[in-house]
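Risk mitigation, structural track. In case the binding assays with S-adenosyl-L-homocysteine fail to produce interpretable data, a predicted complex structure has been prepared as a fallback.
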Amino acid sequence: MAKIQAPVRKNEKGSGTVTDLTYEAMGVIKVDDYPLFIANVLPGEEIDYLVTKVNAHYGFARVLAVKKASPDRVEGVERVYLQAGIAPLAQLSYPAQLKFKQQQVINLLAKVKLPLTVAPTIGADQQTGYRNKAQVPVRTIKGVLETGIYRQKSHDLLPLSNFLIQAPQIDATIKAVRDLLREFGVPAYNEQYHSGVIRHIMVRRGQATGQQMVVLVSKQRHLPHEIELIEAIAALPEVVSIIINYNPKTTNVILGAQERLVHGQPYIEDELLGHKFHISAQSFYQVNHDQTEKLYQTAIDAADLQPDDVVVDAYSGIGTIGISVAEKVKTVKEIEVVPEAVADAKANAQLNGLTNLEFTVGKAEEVMPTWAEQQVKMDVLFVDPPRKGLSPEFVAAVLQVKPAKIVYISCNPATLVRDLRLLVDGGYEAKTVQPVDMFPLTNHVESVVALTRVEK
Ligand code: SAH
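Fallback model:
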């Protein structure tokens, strides 16, 4: 084994000034260029620490005392929100959080040598209670059914009823469902023995409508006392839909493939930018309603749409972006891999009286190359991929199709800058990245970039 040559040792005490905050919201102190990562401290703070772990190139320490606090420090944040990963940035003042997110993008762009301007992050008016969706594990602790959150990097449940960033109406529903499960004696799932019944409770809420969907994720198809239980949940405020999702597998994936509607309608309704949307249990839907409207508006403005444009909305989910722009353009073609989401998207086009949308179920990286082969015309391409970003096959096909404009909406700046590098090298130009704070108090960074084709 290589000998570790770190300037610090485990269990050694030290003091220093925090110089940086990593993407994971860990404070950094450098000892002779050797970085120590320390939770719950902020840049500029002078602290005493205890070294807890020493690796070859970096170590970890625990804060013992903050001798000089940052002016950006928010006091009185409960540790559970920091430690369970619910709100890792809650100790940082909101203006400093917005700067932190802008800086993340600046740092990553520098790594790929792209000289783009990063605009100040568009902030949220509401920094708590903004999430419209919750997925809460259910377990038994000391003989009592509990709902809460896993302790960081574990599956130990920490009971919790105020989740801080979720809509309070959702927290209330989860608590009420928990009490009903206790009352009817419906057992919680036991991960160790793969026994018991209820694994998770998922709740979704349409902010514009107040409609809530409750999904009980169960190890078995039918619940004990099912009729009485469902009747009682259906009587809770705002609940318009109850689904039993059947997940019999030993897996970390929350939802199983099969589900059964046991009360009301199979979707909730919400509104974005004046359009109505039906959202079913298996479909992706942005979790922060107000910031989503700002995000979409930023993307739409950047696209500079014309009435004759053929628009592609790739990674389209329930069709929200395409439907928001359909009235302004000639045609919208949507690509999405989850069939349930595409079914929602079709229903949503109809719900909004739109007839100029086309839908393709499939992987964007497989659909786009076939369109490139068929020389499908496209003027504006919206992409809104998951965290892993665009695949090389997708980018290659886009560079063949050559849309005049690409609007990239990204939930992961690391993959965004990687993909921007490829698109710029392939003949596109970008000037500005606009971060939008979709997830206040957390370290997630969302951004929008418009790219224009410069080479023919
Ligand atoms: N634009 C939508 C959805 C964005 S989330 C909105 O704003 O709500 C990303 C979407 O991409 C999800 O719906 C996911 O199911 C879908 N997706 C993931 N991988 C994909 C792939 N390889 N091809 C097409 N769609 C994919």
